[in-house]
Amino acid sequence: MKYVVVLGDGMADWPIEEIGDKTPLEYANTPAMDMLAKKSEIGLSANIPEGMKPGSDTANLGVLGYNPKKYYTGRSPLEALSIGVDMEDTDIAIRCNIVTVSDDDLPYEEKTIIDHSSSEISTKDAAVLLNAVKDELQDEIYQFYVGTSYRHLTIWKKGQVCELTPPHDILGKVIGEYLPADDKLREFMKRSYDILNNHPINVERAKKGLNKANSIWFWGAGTKPCLDSFEGKYGKKGVMISAVDLLKGIAVGTGMTNIIVDGADGTLETNYEGKADAAVKALTCDGYDYAYIHVEAPDEMGHQGSLTNKVKAIEYLDSRVIQRVYDKMTASGEDFRMLVLPDHPTPIAVRTHTSDPVPYMLYDSTDIKDEKHLYNEKEAKESGRLFEQGYELMSYFLQ
Question: Is the pTM here over 0.70, yes or no?
Fold first, then answer.
């Protein structure tokens, strides 16, 4: 038996009046999911433990079968694993986003955060900007590392975990009350605006109608992680296929193999087919038992508040990943199970993550169901199936 997870990050949502009180998942044209739903088990999974923040870090740990309350030490330490930073026990890792704040004459504290991803800035341009910040601000205590797109990393030597606000939680808000309490971190953010706002790359971005990538933003602080081996835990040799450092870092920490797909960039135009093909090859040709395909686009479109593009991201996931994996695995003759789900909702209405249980669909080529439900939030709830501890779903899937 082979196992594949298709994770549509942030795919779940709330009913939206302008599309007939349907969610984007209900509204989207998803023939592959509609077909599979009739043959699969449908239900809900509560991936965010009570009392924990609804992030892709805690949620994906849960989906992978790791109890976040036991294993979670912060988001940025997981990303440090992906980047290849060898943390000391006394190091603190902090996510260092390159964001867009308002380009005006107001003091930094009175500016508004416009875009947490700086118009989904390319890694190439972001690296130039982060290195400009690094040249001015890095010292023996604070060290900066380039990640992917707008997502980068700062290591604070002998630092402390402090309360920091995710930028995607405060889009459209004045930033003053959300700045770090730590004087040095707050000073770095203010200075970064002076370094970046009129940088040649940002001058060109503004001419093209793109958001300036004009400030760093610290969040997600944590300590060195310690994760158990996925193969040791479940007896399955696994691969991770993602464009996001967080997921790559979880893979490193759990001993899974990261497969890098050309053109996979975490955006709406990512290489969906390449991800699907990489998973099938790993399972049918390369001796792996388990593949985790992570697609970031639905989450990014939720953060942007773009209903049109969130629907499009879900339709791409359906036609270019789920259908493709199903067809190729079926043609291979291998028995397989496929689990489709989000990690958490990213509702258009709030443009950030929530803790609501998410719908899952579990297909087994050796146990075809005769279901009446389609795959969406409403019908998953109506099914009456609920994993109250989301991290238990993986054991069930791999049984």
Answer: yes
Structure tokens at 39: 């043959």
Three-state secondary structure string covering the chain:
CEEEEEEECCEECCCEHHHCCECHHHHCCCHHHHHHHCCCEEEEECCCCCCCCCCHHHHHHHHCCCCHHHHCCCHHHHHHHHHCCCCCCCCEEEEEEEEEECCCCCCHHHCEEEECCCCCCCHHHHHHHHHHHHHHHCCCCEEEEEEECCEEEEEECCCCCCCCCCHHHCCCCECHHHCCCCHHHHHHHHHHHHHHCCCHHHHHHHHCCCCCCCEEEEEEEECCCCCCCHHHHHCCCEEEECCCHHHHHHHHHHCCEECCCCCCCCCCCCCHHHHHHHHHHHHHCCCCCEEEEEECHHHHHHHHCCHHHHHHHHHHHHHHHHHHHHHHHHHHCCCEEEEEECCCECCCCCCCCCCCCEEEEEEECCCCCCCCCCCCHHHHHHCCCEECCCCHHHHHHCC
Q: For the chain, give every residue range classified as CATH 3.40.720.10.
A: 2-73+227-397
Overall average pLDDT of the 286-310 stretch: 97
Architecture of domain 2-73+227-397: 3-Layer(aba) Sandwich (3.40)
Q: pLDDT tens, 336-353?
A: 999 999 999 999 999 999
Cβ-based neighbours of 142, under 8 Å, separated by 6 or more = 154, 155, 156, 157, 184, 188
What pLDDT, on a 0 to 100 scale, did the predictor assign at position 372?
87
Average pLDDT over residues 306-310: 98
Burial per residue of 323-345, b for 16 or more beta-carbon CB atoms within 10 angstroms, e otherwise? bbbbebbeeeeeebbbbbbbbbb
pLDDT in tens, 202-240: 999 999 999 999 999 999 999 998 899 999 999 999 999
Across all residues in the chain, what is the average pLDDT? 96
